[in-house]
Design goal:
By secondary structure, this protein is an alpha/beta fold. It has 11 helices and 19 strands. The strands form 3 sheets. Strands 1, 2, 8, 9, 10, 11, 17, 18 and 19 form a 9-stranded mixed sheet that branches. An 8-stranded mixed sheet has the order 5-6-4-13-14-15-12-16, sandwiched between helices. The two termini are 37 Å apart. The protein binds flavin-adenine dinucleotide.
Length: 430
């Protein structure tokens, strides 16, 4: 298990919000279970509107993926707008498209509006193709979202290297709205803003039981009880057995990241110039960005909570050497990993499994902007927004196929994906 001391963001984050272990009983309008970006943004929306809110985490605010994330704001889906409409129908599809068009700007507006100090940079995202087939798909993806209204430019040949500093690609999209944040600072900042609006935050407070009685929810923790009109589950990849079946609605993957020593100014002018971010089209995706001090944060798909397991660390280092051979031998300062919840269609799910109980999970590795979209949608729903005005449809809690066996085989997924990526690069390279 990666400890929080191993996670780079804990060493540069803004102050933790005021929170303590729940002790005794509490009665609130809404209980939010899970203190990551989704839960904190949900609590903020509700508290801002005057609801009484308890926000609880089994560890601490930001302990899950939100405090471990690469923090890249890559705000489009893997699907084209037309594919979203085919998948969700025209009404939800169109609303999700409109929400997506502003998702990145809305995140950076939220950061300003709530005065969150999280080293936010909105200088663009380079999405690079690693094979000819990926180039063709990306062209279609880019032109369709461009036609829908996003500012996306195609980069080819030497212009990819100029824009990214990587010699590994010959085609990429440059998404102007992309950017990056210090993810733990953002999570803590949302929580602090929620607390400033009256929300109560509790750490070391795992909810172990949820029961409906007399038209309300009763949530039990080790040391207390919360009674609430409504409960929102925002536990994503860290979802446990609290609500039957929820854990089976996604595949739990891992992502692993390293932080290098700060790069020299000259290196920073060449690699990811202007502090753009990069990610590519590999199954075991490579992604990179700078932190505020010029360290490169480089990651890929992991196998477990332990970075080294199943060749995870070797995979990251091979990735770093492939994407940025100029700094192949740069010393590292830290390495860490965290869980990601991947749904079959790689889109988040909103659920309402019982009256007064909502869940928003399954960000599939694209959570930095989309958790805020989900948090705003969950709070809007509880504040009275009609279901058919939401950006996400409310889905039944349906288990993904072969969940049990695939969970056991999951550590082998990243090595298998890496093999497939290498085969594709050899047979269909750029
Ligand atoms: C290493 C890594 C790199 C990533 N990089 C990127 C990136 O660059 N860009 C991007 O868009 N996305 C990225 N992601 C994904 C993104 O970080 C997540 O989608 C997002 O943070 C999910 O936020 P969340 O609030 O939904 O869940 P989390 O932040 O995981 O929060 C869930 C919380 O629920 C708590 N919890 C669980 N069960 C209970 C319970 N019973 N009672 C109380 N609390 C409970 C947990 O302790 C946890 O803190 C990355 C993820 C990882 C792990």
């Amino acid at each position: 298990m990666t400890t929080k001391e191993e996670v780079h963001w804990y060493h540069t984050a803004g102050a933790a919000p005021e929170s303590h272990e729940l002790d005794g009983s509490l009665d609130v309008d809404v209980l939010v279970v899970g203190g990551g970006l989704t839960g904190c943004r949900t609590a903020l929306g509700l508290a801002e509107a005057g609801a009484s809110v308890a926000l609880v985490d089994s560890r601490e605010i930001g302990w899950g993926a939100s405090g471990r994330s690469g923090g890249q704001c890559n705000p489009i889906w893997r699907q084209t707008p037309q594919q979203l409409i085919d998948m969700l129908g025209s009404s939800y599809g169109e609303r999700l498209i409109q929400t997506t068009l502003t998702a990145a700007d809305d995140l950076f507006l939220d950061i300003k509006r709530f005065g969150v100090d999280c080293d936010a940079v909105q200088n663009g995202w380079i999405q690079a193709a690693h094979t000819k087939k990926a180039r063709k798909n990306m062209r279609a993806l880019g032109s369709s979202w461009s036609a829908a209204g996003l500012d996306i430019a195609e980069l080819e040949g030497v212009s990819v290297r100029d824009a990214s500093g990587s010699p590994a690609y010959s085609f990429a999209l440059r998404h102007a709205a992309g950017g990056h944040v210090q993810p733990l600072s953002l999570t803590r900042g949302y929580a602090r803003a929620a607390i400033a609006h009256g929300a109560l935050a509790f750490e070391n407070t795992p909810i172990t039981k949820l029961k409906r009685a007399d038209g309300k929810w009763r949530a039990q923790s080790r040391t207390g009880q919360i009674t609430a009109e409504n409960v929102v589950l925002t536990t994503n990849a860290y979802t446990d057995g609290l609500w039957p079946g929820l854990q089976q609605t996604f595949y739990r993957f891992f992502s692993a990241v390293v932080a290098t020593q700060p790069l020299a100014d000259e290196q920073q002018r060449e690699i990811l110039p202007g502090k753009v971010t990069i990610s590519d089209t590999r199954l075991a995706i490579y992604f990179a960005r700078y932190d505020r001090d010029g360290r490169l944060i480089f990651g890929c798909v992991g196998s477990s909570v332990k970075v080294d397991a199943f060749g995870g660390f070797r995979r990251i280092m091979r990735g770093l050497r492939t994407v940025f051979p100029q700094i192949a031998n740069i010393p590292l300062e830290r390495k860490w990993a965290g869980g990601i919840a991947v749904t079959p269609e790689m889109m988040p799910h909103m659920h309402e499994p019982a009256p007064g109980l909502l869940a928003g999970i399954g960000f599939s590795g694209r959570g930095i902007a989309m958790t805020s979209v989900m948090g705003r949608a969950l709070s809007a729903k509880l504040l009275g927004m009609a279901t058919d005005e939401l950006p996400f449809p409310i889905l039944p809690v349906t288990p993904v196929p072969f969940h049990g066996i695939s969970s056991r085989l999951m550590p082998l997924a990243a090595p298998a994906m890496t093999l497939k990526d290498r085969f594709d690069s050899m047979t269909d390279g750029i």
